[in-house]
Amino acid sequence: xxxxxxxxxxxxxxxxxxxxxxxxxxxxxxxxxxxxxxxxxxxxxxxxxxxxxxxxxxxxxxxxxxxxxxxxxxxxxxxxxxxxxxxxxxxxxxxxxxxxxxxxxxxxxxxxxxxxxxxxxxxxxxxxxxxxxxxxxxxxxxxxxxxxxxxxxxxxxxxxxxxxxxxxxxxxxxxxxxxxxxxxxxxxxxxxxx
Length: 194
Known about the structure:
single chain, alpha+beta, 7-stranded antiparallel beta sheet, 3-stranded antiparallel beta sheet, 29% helix, elongated, disordered N terminus
């Protein structure tokens, strides 16, 4: 009985591989073979990012910026995401706390060492504090890019499970392209480097 299972496993793997590599009738004969994809919903991305927040960022020992959970927005046309965060500024240099917003845009990359999709190539889109004095706003804006980088650079937006990678790995594939769609992410697989 065991031998029969051991003999069937490679056959099943071969059939699966052939199913992925055979063109369908709707594809031209010279079209590249279809490869597996892994989809991640916008809600799953939001939940993963929320695990790191709220976050406190001290600015020059005079002001503390408390950054709340970002609201992610998908930007399929740019193949990027944006994150808007409420920020509260308080500390010895201020008479009271002030509320503002921080918005950043970022691309995504796959990190094979821990099977994660991470934010990278951050761009500060906006940092606003309407009730702060102009001099304090200049100070905060000086630290704005560092604040954006500290809050989201390399933040994990998704972690792939071993079972998500088992079949592609057995076919010699690894995560490659990451495409932002209107529903979330589509992670494509590509052949492993030899």
